[in-house]
Design goal:
The chain is mainly alpha-helical. Helices cover 88% and strands 0% of the residues.
Length: 256
């Protein structure tokens, strides 16, 4: 039969048992909490696995839709791009046509002005050329006529009595297709003897009057020297007297 413990020892024992029971309860509580944490972690892992699996399944399921959406979006974008490109091309063509029409009209006007200016310049050059040709022909004809006058006068060296007649009528004498001016003048002389004599008589009268005046001037100079009474002037007068004598001899052959 067990010994009875004292009350004092029983109180200590009771306390130890209670403390042991508390510690056991605490360990049990901690174990339950640890298990709960493990279950929570496991649930989290499972939930994450399910989410990942669901995400993969969803992506696999949505991949076709996304592909279709991308294709539809690309087709829509391509249609919009093609439409805008066609509109832009149409606007560009209309702008080109408008610019081409405007500039074609301007070019036509400029070409018309250019053609008109060229035509006017051609007419001016043609007019200037004709005027120059006329002027050159006139000048050449005048030069040729002057040269021909000198040539005809040179050809009349063998008939000096006809030179005054030629100088009088040379403006009326022109060369002919088969006759030079000299020949035309000689032919005119043969056809107009009366006019030749008239012209020659007038020329002789003028020459006689000129020689008579020179003689009178010489006589007057001689008389002035004689009246001066100067020997040198007298000697000069003698020289003038000789000239007057020569003049008288020349006039002796001229019918007054």
């Amino acid at each position: 039969m067990a010994k009875r413990r004292p009350a004092e020892d029983f109180g200590k024992y009771r306390k130890r048992e209670i403390a042991r029971a508390h510690r056991a309860a605490e360990r049990k509580k901690l174990a339950e909490l640890r298990a709960r944490v493990r279950r929570a972690k496991a649930a989290r892992r499972e939930a994450l696995r399910q989410v990942v699996a669901r995400g993969k399944a969803t992506r696999r399921r949505m991949r076709g839709r996304w592909k279709a959406l991308r294709a539809a979006a690309r087709e829509r974008i391509n249609r919009e791009i093609a439409t805008e490109r066609e509109q832009m091309r149409a606007r560009h063509n209309r702008r080109k046509e408008r610019i081409r029409a405007e500039h074609t009209q301007k070019i036509s006007k400029a070409q018309a002005l250019l053609a008109e200016e060229r035509r006017w310049q051609r007419e001016q050059r043609s007019f200037a050329k004709r005027a120059s040709a006329k002027e050159r022909a006139r000048r050449t004809a005048a030069e040729a006529r002057a040269e021909s006058d000198d040539r005809v006068e040179a050809n009349l060296a063998t008939a000096p009595e006809l030179v005054p007649v030629w100088r009088k009528v040379k403006r009326r004498i022109a060369a002919r297709p088969r006759m030079s001016r000299t020949e035309a003048f000689l032919h005119w002389v043969e056809e107009n003897p009366d006019e030749v004599l008239t012209i020659r008589a007038d020329y002789d009268d003028r020459e006689i009057a000129k020689m008579a005046k020179e003689y009178e001037d010489a006589q007057a100079e001689l008389e002035r020297y004689e009246m001066a009474g100067d020997i040198r002037k007298a000697g000069g007068a003698l020289g003038l007297d000789q000239e007057a004598a020569e003049l008288e001899r020349e006039l002796a052959d001229v019918p007054f």
